[in-house]
Amino acid sequence: MDLFEYQGKQFFARYGIPVSDGEAVTDVEAAVAAADRVGYPVVVKAQVQVGGRGKAGGIKLAANADEARRYATDIIGMDIKGHTVEVVWVEHASDISEEYYASFTLDRSAKQYLGMLSAQGGVEIEDVAATDPDAIAKIHVDPAEGLSEAACRAWVEAAALNPAATEGAVDILMKLYTAYTEGDADLVEINPLILTPDGRVHALDAKVTLDDNSVFRHADYSVYDETQVRDVREEAAHEKGLQYIGLDGSVGIIANGAGLAMSTVDIVTQVGGSPANFLDIGGGANADVMAGAMEVINNDPKVRSIFINIFGGITKGEEVANGIVQALARVKIDAPIVIRLDGTNADEGRAILEPHRSDMLQIEPTMRDAARRVVELAGGVSS
Ligand code: GDP
Ligand code: MN
Q: Residues enclosing ligand 1, CB less than 6 A?
């Protein structure tokens, strides 16, 4: 689960990482009261889980109460890349000499943790990686060995920060590593990590993703769960008991079995399409489940074509086909469907579907053919 900046800062503070004093509030008067308390100048920061809030006008420096009121009024309710601002974080503003980038995440292929540190912070790290990859100092950490202070110091030196920042950076990065491991995070990122004119190193932003599977070890993480930004499609699907994960593409996917559903996502991608979702309807594929799956996919405005990929096992082809036909009678589908039906009694199943064949219901013999067809119907190779 992803934390908002203010939650990330509270999380960091527990591990001793210096962050600015501030308050999360939901209305203008509370924002002004918070600003009065933390002391001017303050920064009013939109709490949305997207980057580039600054550029979007979601971060403003206020020198006095009038400005704090004006900016809080502007920012609360603002839309930033499709996210409505409901909470603002008001913190005492910092003086900045330099902006750095620091993070820990998992490098799956190396089977190790990966720390990244750059003297070029403040901007998106992807931009730094693209234009000047050498400006990012990387460190791999063996989870069994942990991060020694000596290794951390060598890493900081490799990043060539201002020498005045070395001690503070080593201290924060050791704490950030502890937060990452003991806090069961998948990602901890500070951008910018700043050096102040008086030589302090300090976290000005916080991006934290916690491992959902660790919640049993952290009773206090339930507060983060309550504020999670939910995918409306996922909520609807989970209410119907479907194994659904929302993605950003245009090809809706319905498959039976998690493995086949994943393969379907892969093959749609391989032939140049972009999946709108992962959806596993399980082994049964009866009319109720199929109709529920179709409704969820059909309510996704991005979906331009639908791939139903079924492999009959214990459930026979004709049962699946009957389920599809009955579901189609119940749900009005807006996007064309491509079906691939194989496995036990596939011929019998296809014979049942045959009379329903149309432009809106196409049948393809193989998974690859069906993938190509459904991607074509979605408008070709999409982004
Ligand atoms: P993001 O744009 O969503 O990543 O938001 P950040 O929290 O990283 O803030 C964006 C930028 O605003 C930073 O890189 C800083 O340049 C600036 N900023 C944020 N907080 C302060 C502050 O306390 N003082 C000053 N002077 N600038 C700040
Ligand atoms: Mn940032």
A: 43, 51-54, 59, 61, 93-94, 96, 99, 122, 191-192, 204-205
